[in-house]
Design goal:
Strand content: 25-35%
CATH topology of the domain at 48-94 and 109-146: Immunoglobulin-like
Shape: extended
Number of helices: 1
Distance between the termini: 51 Å
Helix content: 10-25%
CATH architecture of the domain at 48-94 and 109-146: Sandwich
Order of helices and strands: HEEEEEEE
Largest sheet: 4 strands, antiparallel
Structural class: alpha+beta
Number of strands: 7
Length: 155
């Protein structure tokens, strides 16, 4: 049986300082660069929306989407549902600074958009959305036909 060689640690790399989200950001940046090489640069002035970090889960009764939108007010968010597609969109304005020049900012601003096709039949009339502590929670109830039913076994 062939064995893989042991992995070598890179010099100066400390696992305590390892940040997996940083690696995803690097991958996202590199993918953007590859897309620009393949398709050409986007025309000047085109505002491409970013997607918030989001969890999509399911209970017996509903699909639950939680999107991280820190610093966003409820009037800056739009939640729409059409057929089985959920769309969360909005815009975070560039902050106005009274403290002089800004040297660096890593906060997300501009248009954002998240789209999800829900896997089953839903009840669009009962969808609810709540924004609390920077997390938008959208609950999309399942239709009666999509809910699991317990079947009693006779014997």
């Amino acid at each position: 049986m062939a064995m893989l060689p042991p992995r070598r640690r890179r010099a100066g790399r400390n696992l305590a300082m390892y940040d997996p989200t940083r690696e995803f950001e690097d991958i996202y940046t590199r993918m953007g660069q590859l897309m620009n090489l393949a398709l050409g640069d986007m025309p000047a002035g085109v505002d491409v929306p970013w997607a918030p970090l989001t969890d999509l889960g399911e209970t017996d009764d509903a699909y639950v989407v939680r999107a991280e939108l820190p610093g966003v007010n409820k009037d800056q968010v739009n939640v729409e549902i059409q057929d089985r597609e959920l769309v969360i969109s909005g815009e975070i304005p560039e902050p106005e600074s009274d403290e002089g020049r800004r040297h660096r900012s890593t906060r997300r601003t501009g248009r954002f958009e998240y789209r999800a096709s829900l896997p089953g039949d839903i009840n669009p009339e009962q969808v609810s959305a709540r924004l609390s502590d920077g997390v938008l929670t959208v609950t999309v109830p399942k239709s009666e036909g999509a809910k699991p039913r317990r079947i009693e076994v006779s014997g």
